[in-house]
Every structure is written in C-alpha cells, then in structure tokens.
Amino acid sequence: MPKLWQMDDYDECLESPGPGEPPGVYNRSELWKLIEEFSSDYKRHYNHQVLKWGVCIKRCQKAIEKLSPAERNALTVEPFPIDVRYKLDDGILEDISTYREAYQDVLEICVNKELNDTYGLVAYTEILSCNKSTDEVVIDVLDMSFLIVLCALVCFVTLSSWYDSSINYKRTSDHYRQPLDSKRKMVLVSFSIQRNWYRLTSRSKDELNQKLRFFHAFRFLTIVLVIFGHTSLLLVVTPTTDLEKHERIMHSVGSMILTNGGQITQTFLGMSGVLLAVKFCSFSEKRKGKVSFLYVPFAILYRYVRLTPVYAFVILLHATWLLKLQTGPLWRWGAETEQTFCRRNWWTNLLYINNYVHADEPCVQQGWYLGAEFQIFIIALIVLVTIVKIPRAKVLILGLVLLAGYVIPAVFIYYQKLEGTYLVTLEAQRYLLWYDKYYLHAYIPTHINFGNYIQGVLTGLVYNELQKRSINLAQSKVFSIVWHLTIVILPLSWLPSYMFYVNDFPTPSVWMAAYFALSKNLYGFGMGIIILGCIYGVNGVVKRMLNYPFFEPLGRLTYGAFLVHPFVMRFMFASVRAPVHYSDLLTLSLVFGATVMSYLMALVLCLLIELPTSALQNHLFRSFEDQKSNRVDRESGTNGTNQTLIIPGLAGKQS
C-alpha cells in the first residue's frame, strides 16, 4: 500500500532561491484513495484512504514540466464525497485558500504521477498547510503583551528578592523560612525567589500532612505516566518509518493497558476527592459543625484564584509565541492550530467549561481535566456542606450522589450509542482526538468523570470515621490482602476492553452502558483502597519509598508540569523534518527528556507565578484563614495536581 507518510527534504526545499527562481514552497497534502478492506477495521487500523504527504513544490514543478496537456488531465481527479473528517476548517490556518488556488493543480498532478507510476492509483489532493521560504515572523499586540507580562514578572521577582535580602540583617537562611513582622513586608516579599524556594523545598510537619505525604509521590508518578501516554499519542500523530508497528500492537490484548491508560488521570480526581473530604471534615470539626452555605462561594473563589494565574500565563504563551519558536513541515499544523484555538476560545478555559464548550477546538487541550475537576469540586463541596447541615440524611445523600456517579454515565453512553469502553483508535489519534466522538462524549465530560471524584470524597469520609473510632487498617490482615490484590487487579481489569475492539456490538446497548459505568468507576474504588492502605502503612516498604523527601518538591511542581508538558512535547515531535524510526529505547528517552524539561519549566513557573500569587492570595484571604495555620507551608489543602482546595478556617469568621 502507499505510505501514509512521505516527505520531501524540507530544508533543501526552503534554501534561498537563485536569481529568477520562485521562492521554495513546501506543502503537506491530503490524498484520498480507496483501500477500504484494510481500513474497515477502524478500531485497530489507520484509515489508509487518507494519506499525509509533504511535497516540495519546486520538485513537483520540475517533475511535471514535460507532461502533455492530455497526461496532466488524466492525472487530475475531481472532488468526490468523503465521509470522514480529514482536514481542518477554513480559517484555522492562515492563507490556506490562497495556497490551494496557487498550487492545488500542480500538487495533484505531481502526486498522482508518483502514485500512478508506483501503485497504479490516483487520488484527490487537497492542501492542508503550506510553508514558504519568504514567510516572515509577524509580531502583533498580543505577542507584545506576553513580553510585557513576562518582563513585569521578572522585575517583581528581582525587586522582591532584593528587598527580602536587604532586610535579612542577620544574613541567615532562617530569615526566609520565617514570617516577617508586618503584613506590608510579607506582601513585598511575596515574589522573593529565596523565600519561595524554601516554600517549595520545605517538608510539612503537621500530623495530617505527614500521613498524606505520599500524595506527592502519587502526583509525580501519575504525571510521568500521563507524559508516557501522550508520547504514545504523538508517535501516532507524527510521521514514523514503522506505522505498521502501531497496528500490530492494536491486535494484542496487552495493548489495552496502553489504550486504557487514559484512566490514569482518574488518580488525580481520586486524590482531589480524598483531600477535599479530609480537609472539609477537619474544618467542620473546628467549627463544631457550624458551616454555612455561604462558605461555598468563598471556597470556589479561593480555588479559582489559586488555579488561574499560571494557567492564564500558559494560555497566553500558546496564543502568542509558540508558533514563532520553531519551523518544520508539521509545525504550522501542530502550533498554529493551538494559537488559533487559544485566541478564539481562551475564555472557555478561564471559565473552566472547556470540556463542554468548543471542546473540538481545544486551547491547552489537557485543560479539559481542570474544567471537569473544577465543576465536580463545586458539586462535591455543596454535597459536603449539605451533609453537615443535615447529618441525619448523610447516608442517604451520599448514597444518591454515588448512585448518580454510576447511573448518569451509563445513561449518556446508552443514548449516545457509544461502545462499552472509551475507544482510542489510531485514526482519531492522527487528529489529536479533536473530532473523535468517543473522546468528546466518553472521556472529557464532567458527568463521565464524576463517579471517581465522588468515590475519592467517600474515601476521605471513611478515613475520617476510622480516625474517630481509632481503627488502624494496618492491623487488619484481610485489608492487607485486599490492598495487595487491588494493586494487581486494577490494571488487569482493563484487559476485557479488548472485546470492544474486535467486535462491533449493536448500539445502543444496556449491557455496554452498564459495563462502561462499572469499569470506569472501578478504578476510583480501587484507588480508594490503595490510598487508605498507604495512609495506614499496610506495606511499610512501599510507604517509606513514597515518603522519600525527593518526591515532595516534585509533587508541588506537578501542576506546572501538567500545564507545560504538551508545550515541551510539541518541540520534540512536531518539529521533525522527516519520518523517524522510534525504537522502544528512543521512546523511553523521549519520555525521560519530556519529563525533565517539563519539570524545569514548571520550576520557573512556580517561582515566577505560582508561589508568589499563592502568597498574595493568602494575604488577601487572611481574614478567612485560621491564624494558627502554618504561614510558611500552605500545603494543607490540595487537589490532585497540587492546587489548594480548602484552607481550614477559610470562612471561619464569616458563617
């Protein structure tokens, strides 16, 4: 069969033209052909009817210059109906209509000549993106605004660090670990890099944070697995010399552990639910159960202010300078799309509704998780306040909410006629899942992910009850056996999903809808058992490993790494000049490199934006905070990506 990817030499094509020669123009073409039989297994194979070729216009012009008009006409194919999404909407990439008008005929004749000579086939050709040697970098007002914001942040950090150092009269490092004697001084040193470094690397000392210290390791290990999963996705997106390898993998039952790897993000949701419940119970006990519903908007505002500054900065980066930092045959498709989407749809991200609104044109695509989690956080917080206000209905309310976490996804899967699992097809990955119905309806919506967060909340409530009754699960042999079995069973539970890849079951189906809900939420149930076991130290060796000091700063940097790792990975994959052979060793090396670079960028964002804004936030909300809380380490309430959810005493004087 014709190669799915074929690319002429990009750099040679764009060399400076000689006197009287037209500027070099490099183009990626989409070609249509009928290879239906192999492509019909759409769940495990690429769609070989759609080819992506990178073609140099100068080479094409030379290749067809001697063809007669009759030969050219024979190699021209009229448009015909195509029932698959294979190109971007007009307006996403700049000047594409102009390029199509200028080069469409030349490309089609050139490509069809090669296809006909090699395979005896012809295809309809359409231009997707185009690069020219005369392209210039244009800087607009938004680009300048990013530079102004960046310079302002650097100035704040420099001046704040200088001031903090100037009032360190004893010249000791303890100065940066201790609060200063006035609120004004504390505000002025909010951006101090020395002080924020100690906030980043300090260890939490209160009893609760010591018990939950392993969450830092969970965050770090989870983001590494997320990066590994996104690497697998980008291997499908970018041109490789061994595409058949991906199709062979999809014929293996073991591939289900990889294709179901998207479930790993449920770890963040489970941890978020646990921490919300634990910190809320602590807050409620200090208030002796006197918690008003007016607490909810304050907690939401606190969390919004905590999440948004660094998130907005990354959105602004993607909307401005990402496109200008690299070139290549895939770069416009990989970076200009992001720029366009962010300039159009940034507001959906900042309102945390991007997993529903314009989800098929995502800005900072991984931000769907933040939208889903923010929405569930609001619901869970209302539920927790309700069970405190109406303690007699606690079991009933929690039971109904848990039931909703199972029933609602099943109902949507049934009426949307989806399969019994989230199908991750190779063809959908070629387009970064933007237009995939399984991704849009069975993966990113809040109602699909609601159950695992709520099960995390229930885990936190169970832990609180165990503490009240002085029950130590580490002393239970039965729980120890269940805990160890869960670690093994949880990944194996993904294997039965293979039946949905090899069969086309009729839809809608009640049993598939029920299977989807049960298998989706089984992960949250298992994570609850694992978290409880880690809290109580069921396996001492595992707990000591997870509590290693190395993980604490890495866990705190996870939110930044989560936001920037696709930025890093674009440079690693979307800047390639030709098809690459990705061996297993090279793939692991790329995962390691992406992890290291993401954490280095996260460190910069943390010291430049995240920790300074959280320090200012603490001063802003101080009247609602517990005055006895640790002013140096504000790690007491965090979500799965290390974001503050609840600070005990947040509304202590407000109820």
In DSSP terms (H or I, runs of 4 or more residues), the helix count works out at 28
**Proportion of residues in helical segments:** 55-70%
State Rg: 27 Å
Structural class label: mainly alpha
Residue-averaged pLDDT, rounded?
87
The number of distinct β-strands equals 4
How many separate structural domains? 3
Amino- and carboxy-terminal Cα gap: 70 Å
Q: Order of strands across the widest beta sheet?
A: 1-3-2-4
Shape: globular
Residue stretches low in confidence (pLDDT < 50, at least 5 long) are 27-33, 626-655
| Relative strand content | under 5%
Largest sheet: 4 strands, mixed
Tag the structure with descriptive keywords.
mainly alpha, 3 domains, acyltransferase activity, transferring groups other than amino-acyl groups, 655 residues, O2_lipid_transport_reg, 28 helices, Acyltransferase 3 domain-containing protein, disordered C terminus, 4-stranded mixed β-sheet
